[in-house]
Design brief:
Layout: H1 5-10, H2 25-37, H3 43-51, H4 55-60, H5 69-78, H6 81-93, E1 100-107, E2 120-126, E3 131-138, H7 144-152, E4 161-164, H8 171-179, E5 183-186, H9 193-203, H10 212-219
Parallel strand pairs: 1-4, 4-5
Antiparallel strand pairs: 1-2, 2-3
Helix pairs in contact: 2-3, 7-8
Length: 224
C-alpha cells in the first residue's frame, strides 16, 4: 500500500531530547521540503519561508507558530540521514515496480569540513519513477564496492535491472543481485583484462572487443 509523504516523514525516528521537541519532527521536515520545492537552498531560506506561512497554513502542518532558525539547525544536526533517505525512498517507490535502477556514487559539493574529506554518497535512481529511491553515505575507509553490498540489501531487487559503471562489476555484487531475484548490466573495462578476454571469447567473431575484419570473415563463411 502506498504511503503519503506526511506518513513517510512520521516514520522517521526523532533523536532529539525531550526539551528540544517543541515542534513535531514531522512538521519541521514537511516545512523544510515544501520550502526547498519553493526554491529555498539553505536553512536561513527555509526559516524565512516558514515564517511567512499564515496561521491557517501552519495548522495544516500541525503547529500554531513557525519554528525559529535554531530549531531547523538543531533538527538537521540530530536527524539520522540514512533513516531519512530510507523513508523518502519508500515514499518514492510506493506500490510501483522500480524496473531499471541505476546506481552511482557522487561526492557532494561543499561537504568538506576542516580536515575531513568531502562526503561521498551512493544513490539508486529508478528511471521509470524519475526518482532516487535510496542512497547511502560511503563511510570513511569504505569504498563504493563494500557500500554497494550493504546498499543492495535495502533495495527492491526482485524483477529489477541494476546498472552501474565498471567499479560495480564484482562477483559479490552480481551474486547479491541474483540472490534478490534481480538482473544486472555492468560495464567491463581494461581494469579486468581476464574477464574482458573471457567475454570476448564467448561472443567469438561477434564480440565488440574483436576486429571488424574478423567479424566480416565470419559472416562471409570464412572466405578471406
Amino acid at each position: 500500500m502506498a504511503i503519503s509523504l506526511w506518513d513517510a516523514l512520521g516514520s522517521i525516528m526523532d533523536r532529539r531530547g525531550r526539551k528540544g521537541r517543541q515542534f513535531p519532527l514531522q512538521a519541521i521536515l514537511a516545512i523544510a521540503i515544501a520550502a526547498m520545492l519553493a526554491g529555498a537552498n539553505d536553512l536561513r531560506a527555509i526559516f524565512r519561508w516558514g515564517r511567512r506561512l499564515k496561521p491557517e497554513a501552519l495548522v495544516l502542518f500541525g503547529i500554531e507558530r513557525a519554528p525559529c532558525h535554531a530549531t531547523y539547525h538543531y533538527v538537521f544536526q540530530s536527524i539520522d540521514a540514512d533513516d531519512l533517505a530510507k523513508s523518502l525512498g519508500r515514499f518514492a517507490r510506493g506500490d510501483s515496480v522500480p524496473g531499471h535502477i541505476a546506481i552511482d556514487g557522487k561526492t557532494l559539493k561543499g561537504s568538506r569540513r576542516l580536515d575531513a574529506k568531502a562526503l561521498h554518497v551512493l544513490s539508486a535512481f529508478a528511471t521509470s519513477l524519475s526518482a532516487v529511491i535510496g542512497d547511502i553515505l560511503v563511510k570513511p575507509g569504505q569504498n563504493e564496492i563494500t557500500a554497494a553490498l550493504e546498499f543492495l540489501k535495502e533495495l527492491p531487487l526482485e524483477g529489477a535491472v541494476i546498472t552501474g559503471d565498471a567499479i560495480f562489476c564484482q562477483r559479490e555484487i552480481c551474486q547479491a543481485i541474483d540472490d534478490g531475484k534481480g538482473d544486472y548490466l555492468f560495464v567491463v573495462k581494461d581494469n579486468q583484462p581476464d574477464l574482458k578476454a573471457a567475454i570476448a571469447e564467448s561472443f567469438g567473431a561477434f564480440s565488440p572487443c574483436g576486429s571488424r575484419r574478423s567479424a566480416a570473415r565470419f559472416e562471409d563463411g570464412g572466405n578471406g
